[in-house]
Fold DUF4097 domain-containing protein.
Amino acid sequence: MQEYTFETPEPVELFAEIGSGEIAVTADEVATTQVRIEGSDADDVMVTQKGRTISIVGPKQRGVFGRSHSITATVTVPTGSDLATKTGSADISAEGRFGQAQIQSGSGQVEGGTFTGDVVVNTGSGEVTLKEVLGDLRIKSGSGDVEVDRVAASCSISTGSGDIELGSVGEAASLKTGSGDTTIKEAGADTSLTTGSGDLDVQALRAGALKVKAASGDVEVAIPSGTPVWTEVSTLSGDVDNDLPSAGQPAEGEPFVELRVTTVSGDIHLRQL
């Protein structure tokens, strides 16, 4: 085991690159950055400080059949620090309040707390769970469920196979899944949903235009009471159930929603909150 302590009275830029294992980062009200490296190859991990950048770089795997190096990196950084990780197969957790983040992983779970800046996550396979992103969010996953409680700005999520669950999003959102259910609890701007197979559920669409394309799966959209709605809905083999009452033309400055829903096979249900 190797341990390091760096004087960092301000938020840092943490960069961590390991082949396999685990990266666990906690952002706290501290004036130092503490790093603990565990694993059989802990002595081969380079931990350095250059300005406000703290770097953790594990040994490289040599050749296709080279031995993998499993490393556990446990790090505590000042609140508001930026995070960048690059792993082959490792779980990544970030607990606390961070700035921006760029996370790249071949496989492994990604868990995060609050981020005040933009967040980009690219993973081949593994679940992605984030609490809150105050900037823009971009997630691309080959396979695995994605769950995000809140995005204050724009949001783009794409997964080959897996469910997507988004709590609330403040600006434009684009969600795509090859196979899996998609749920948005609250949307307040233009939203695009696409799925090959899976149910789509928008529990509260408060404003903006919603565009839905689904090959197979049911679609359900809920609109707040009294909100004017323009709809264009079609399905090749499915039922359409429209429970929205006529609200008339929107007054100047009044919120309204626009719905364009298309499915091949699947029921469509439009309801009022």
Q: What stands out?
A: The longest strand covers residues 82-98. The chain has two domains: 1-135, 174-273.
